[in-house]
Amino acid sequence: MNALELDFVRRYPKGAQIRAALSLPDEGVTVLFGPSGAGKSTVLRCLAGLDRPQEGFIRFGRETWFDESTFVPAQRRRIGMLFQDYALFPHLTAQQNIEYGANPQAAKEAARLLRVEALLPRKPAQLSGGERQRVALARALATRPRLLLLDEPLSALDAPARDELRLELRGVLLAAKVPALVVTHDRAEAMALGDRLAVLAEGSIRQAGPVHEVFSSPNDLIVARVVGTENVAPARIVVRDAGLAQVLVGETRLSALDPGGLSENVYACIRAEEVILEGAPHSQTSARNELPGTVVSLAPEGPLVRVVLDCGFRLVALITKNSTQDLRLVPGARVAALIKAPAIRLVPR
Amino acid sequence: MDLPALRLSLLLATLTSLSLLVLGLPLAQWLAGARFKGKPVVEALVSLPLVLPPTVLGFYLLVAMGARSPIGRAWIWLTGKPLAFSFEGLLIASIVYGLPFAVQPFIAALSQVDRRLVEASYTLGASPLETFFRIGLPLAAPGIIAGAVLTFAHALGEFGVVLMVGGNIAGETRTLSISIFDSVEQLDYAAANATSLFLLAVSFAVLLLVSSLRRKA
User: Fold this and answer.
1) ipTM, 2 decimals?
2) What is the pTM of this model?
3) How would you class A288 by CB atoms within 10 Å of its CB: exposed for 0-12, middle for 13-18, buried for 19 or more?
4) What residues of B are in contact with residue A140 (Cβ under 8 Å)?
5) How many CB atoms lie within 10 A of CB B172?
6) Partner residue facing B127 (CB), from A75, A83, A139
7) Which candidate among A130, A208, A248, B7 keeps its CA 20 to 30 Å from the CA of B209?
8) What are chain B's domains?
9) Distance between CA atoms of A240 and A246, rounded to whole angstroms?
């Protein structure tokens, strides 16, 4: 059974609106993903009872939190919310913050789970960003909430604190044994925290499913852009045969899986991680998506390097530093890019 | 110095400030948070005593408290005494006149409390009233105290409304500023000087206190 079911419309005074339709299972972490300004926080606020949608419903288990005739205020929803800037009460100590809505025993357990016992006598101003995040999370968990809502939980932190907490946060969320909805616009955060991913863009939830599935198989161009499939190129289907489609991207012919039901004009989406590079090609032709090209630029990205190629169209590949050294990649170098047919996703144009 | 007048003024100012804390805080919290159609009208009504000549306000209050008005009659029925030219009448007038001096700083202080903290309190299960006492009030405290202190100082020196509503009855309605006026009328400049100096010192001390509270807020 789904713990949380929602389908509502929230209108803004200036005419824009968001339609949010989603269901959450009764355990696990769902990430609400989307670009800044897509309305992710608004969805979260409606679920918390801090904003009121104009129509639709929000149901939690057998309770109705919102419909035409019902509005359950935040106080009676028994949810735990982590605000983007944590919203710790500045005049209270960490301990008083955690005990604010909880009994002392539950507060103690939450403090232990988040490893903040040593910080309890301090006020928020005396805590680092990471420590504040832990205290705020302990405060949310101490009330033994039935649903956890986290608004950009790591965005206010510096990079080292973020890396440390990202790993721990998922464990904490799972330990709570209640459904969690985490808002983020950061891909790494979404992949590290989520079991499921819902993409909110251009006014509605466009796709929801297991994280890897949404990231690797976007339903449409908007989702592809939002989840960061780097290579999105206009293409034309020229041949369809036994579940495969031959498409033309500029002058280049690629072989892809045919999802069916597409008209001739499509977008070809290729994730940069799926592009394999090897040294200059021996022969020119290939039916297995071997594309000759030249390196345009190289940019390091953590342990990886983002390589931009010109293969008759712009193709981005994400490969390891070692590979760039082995292949002696420099701007202007000749390479061959390999893309497996299933890694090319065709979406309607 | 006119000691009965000093005693009376201190009592009046203290009761006015306390009454305005009790009445003004809910009003300020409502005006700071609510959005409704008639809000500008309510705000203008609250601020009216700032611009209205004290004699005009005093005149209307006097008429409202008179033995022929419903309020005046109800008061006589309840207490057996007339409201006009009594200390109680003076207190009511002082509260009405002091309203903006209390409510405006209260609104400023309360609307500086971060909305997210209030919302965080709601998600932790606290009612709006509980949130007001545990979050809003402590965080707005310096501004609220500053407002109450200003109200006190203002009520201590009020003249026009007091003269209209209270008249000049020793021990009942003769406050410090009326005592100064009286002394000058009787050409007793020494007495007027002593009382004026006292009020000047008090006013200056109050402003110092308020500015140090503002820095804290």
Assistant:
1) 0.77
2) 0.77
3) exposed
4) 123-124
5) 16
6) A75
7) B7
8) 3-216 (1.10.3720.10)
9) 6
